[in-house]
Amino acid sequence: SQKIEQNSEALNIQEGKTATLTCNYTNYSPAYLQWYRQDPGRGPVFLLLIRENEKEKRKERLKVTFDTTLKQSLFHVTASQPADSATYLCALDSGGYNKLIFGAGTRLAVHP
Amino acid sequence: KAGVTQTPRYLIKTRGQQVTLSCSPISGHRSVSWYQQTPGQGLQFLFEYFSETQRNKGNFPGRFSGRQFSNSRSEMNVSTLELGDSALYLCASSSGWETVNTEAFFGQGTRLTVV
Questions:
Q1: Residue B42 contacts A, CB cutoff 8 Å
Q2: Closest chain B C-alpha to A18 CA, distance in angstroms
Q3: Closest-CA distance of chain B to residue A71, Å
Q4: What dihedral angle (degrees, nearest 10) is formed by the CA atoms of A92, B48, A46, A21?
Q5: Backbone φ and ψ of B16, nearest 5°
Q6: Which of A6-10, A98-102, B5-9, B53-57 has the highest mean pLDDT?
Q7: Could you say which DSSP state residue B72 is in?
Q8: Per-residue pLDDT tens for B29-39?
Q9: Which residue from A16, B14, B102, B106 lies 20 to 30 Å from B25 (Cα-Cα)?
Q10: How many beta-carbon contacts under 8 Å exist across A and B?
Q11: Do the beta carbons of residue A10 and residue A109 sit within 8 Å?
């Protein structure tokens, strides 16, 4: 079955630095991959979607890469701010309509 | 444009009872998905409805069921509640038929506690 792995340990970085989060998957070749942000007690919020034929996608200070050979996506937050502190979730399409398979998420903490 | 609305926000139920949760999707969205989120298992897919038809189902027991109405509003029901059903239940709506191009818009969730 499909499996997604995100670094379960929290990532602590200094304000202004670039945070890089990793999402690895096995036993599947998804058509696309999504990244979401989740704050405590709230539902996930969509950030970026990248398709299998795209290598990189950017949105403001966010950048996502998708390497289908390595079966890996990297999520970068550049010039990070304390407001970027949250849990970031990676999600793959399962090949079945609007069913997403989520990773466990990585908690990012940006310190002033 | 109003977002996805889930009611109630919090629920406390006793083992053996049943519960119904409600979700109103974004206006115009015809796809509604339900997810269970727990600290140990993360976000897990329950089922998805599109135009009142269940198109996809996750690996949950039959105690978990759902339905969608003609106005796209959806409900999920959990019967014979167990302690392990305590979780945040999230509803997501999407505008598309396929998975390829659509982002999911999540509600705030319903926090269910079974005692």
A1: yes
A2: 25
A3: 18
A4: -30
A5: 95, -20
A6: B5-9
A7: S
A8: 999 999 999 98
A9: B14
A10: 77
A11: yes
